[in-house]
Design goal:
Elements lengths: L1 H61 L5 H20 L8 H11 L14
Helix pairs in contact: 1-2, 2-3
């Protein structure tokens, strides 16, 4: 009888160990999944910021600041770039360059330099 009770107790202990091992493995898998999601979000954010930067650089290289039509088209493109960047996850604070550039492009054609704030 004692042998049977000992085996039952031993089996219970083994089952408890197995359960704790399974729980530990599940937690590790969940932590790995969370880390993977965070890495993917970070990569997506970097991609969105690179998209924004390259779009702005491309626009700035091609816009003719002497043409009102070109400036209007640049403003339209800036709006599209901002919308796309927001959809890709760029926060409003990341769009400060777009906002500043939109403001500069909407100013009258009296500027002679491209210094920040439109000051000459």
């Amino acid at each position: 009888m004692k042998e049977i009770l000992r085996r039952i107790e031993e089996t219970k202990q083994q089952e408890e160990l197995r359960k704790s091992k399974v729980l530990r493995l599940r937690r590790q898998e969940e932590e790995a999944e969370v880390l993977k999601c965070q890495e993917q979000e970070s990569a997506a954010k970097r991609h969105a910021e690179e998209f924004l930067r390259s779009s702005l650089d491309g626009l700035l290289r091609t816009v003719d600041i002497g043409s009102n039509v070109a400036l209007y088209e640049a403003q339209e493109q800036l709006s599209e770039i901002a919308i796309r960047a927001r959809q890709m996850g760029v926060l409003e604070c990341g769009l400060a360059d777009v906002t500043a550039l939109e403001h500069r492009l909407s100013q009258p054609q009296r500027r002679t330099s491209c210094s920040p704030g439109g000051r000459e």
